[in-house]
Amino acid sequence: MNEAQLVMLSRQGDQLAFNKLVELYKDKIYNMAHRILRSKTECEDVVQETFLKVYLNLNRFDENKRFSPWIFHIGKNICLDLLRRRKAPALQLDQPVLAHSDQNLSLHDVIPNQAPTPEGEVIEREFTDKMAEMIEKLPTKYKSIVHQRYVLEMSMEDISRANNIPVNTVKSRIHRAKDFMKKKWGKTLLFYSMHLFSFF
């Protein structure tokens, strides 16, 4: 099965096809990120967020174009966002940031825009909607606790007090809720959700 077929099947919701795309590109995205950021932890974050954005934005990908430049563009922008947060460049502007057969970019080519991009806002909004949909389908006894933990970002102790249940019960229900969501929605989507929601 070629790359174009994997992309087409992934757009149709085929989880195995998307997993194969992940396998094809995860090391390449990591290597690109390492050339820019020089940080193992940040590079792992870049890989996760890149595939999250690819997953959520596959319906916007033009199948008449090549997949490779598109996914590298997404990963590159995530790297640049991290550089902005550091408030200091990791490389000289004229130093190549990617050694790849069809990519030859320097930071001169990719100076970031400080304002959030419309695409980024749409992706974040879609992901929030997807998480809301996932939470809404949880059994009642898990729904409010998961919302409090991962959307409102309440501590275990605060959730315990708000629901008048022991902390251990809160932890147990969250664990069972995650198992329920993994079985219903698949491990890949939840794996990439961890970067934004600290889900695992």
Automatic annotation (TrEMBL):
<dbReference type="InterPro" id="IPR039425">
    <property type="entry name" value="RNA_pol_sigma-70-like"/>
</dbReference>
<keyword id="KW-0805">Transcription regulation</keyword>
<dbReference type="InterPro" id="IPR007627">
    <property type="entry name" value="RNA_pol_sigma70_r2"/>
</dbReference>
<dbReference type="InterPro" id="IPR036388">
    <property type="entry name" value="WH-like_DNA-bd_sf"/>
</dbReference>
<dbReference type="InterPro" id="IPR013249">
    <property type="entry name" value="RNA_pol_sigma70_r4_t2"/>
</dbReference>
<dbReference type="Pfam" id="PF08281">
    <property type="entry name" value="Sigma70_r4_2"/>
</dbReference>
<feature type="domain" description="RNA polymerase sigma factor 70 region 4 type 2">
    <location>
        <begin position="130"/>
        <end position="179"/>
    </location>
</feature>
<protein>
    <submittedName>
        <fullName>ECF RNA polymerase sigma factor SigW</fullName>
    </submittedName>
</protein>
<keyword id="KW-0804">Transcription</keyword>
<keyword id="KW-0731">Sigma factor</keyword>
<dbReference type="InterPro" id="IPR013325">
    <property type="entry name" value="RNA_pol_sigma_r2"/>
</dbReference>
<dbReference type="InterPro" id="IPR013324">
    <property type="entry name" value="RNA_pol_sigma_r3/r4-like"/>
</dbReference>
<dbReference type="InterPro" id="IPR014284">
    <property type="entry name" value="RNA_pol_sigma-70_dom"/>
</dbReference>
<dbReference type="Pfam" id="PF04542">
    <property type="entry name" value="Sigma70_r2"/>
</dbReference>
<comment type="similarity">
    <text>Belongs to the sigma-70 factor family. ECF subfamily.</text>
</comment>
<feature type="domain" description="RNA polymerase sigma-70 region 2">
    <location>
        <begin position="21"/>
        <end position="87"/>
    </location>
</feature>
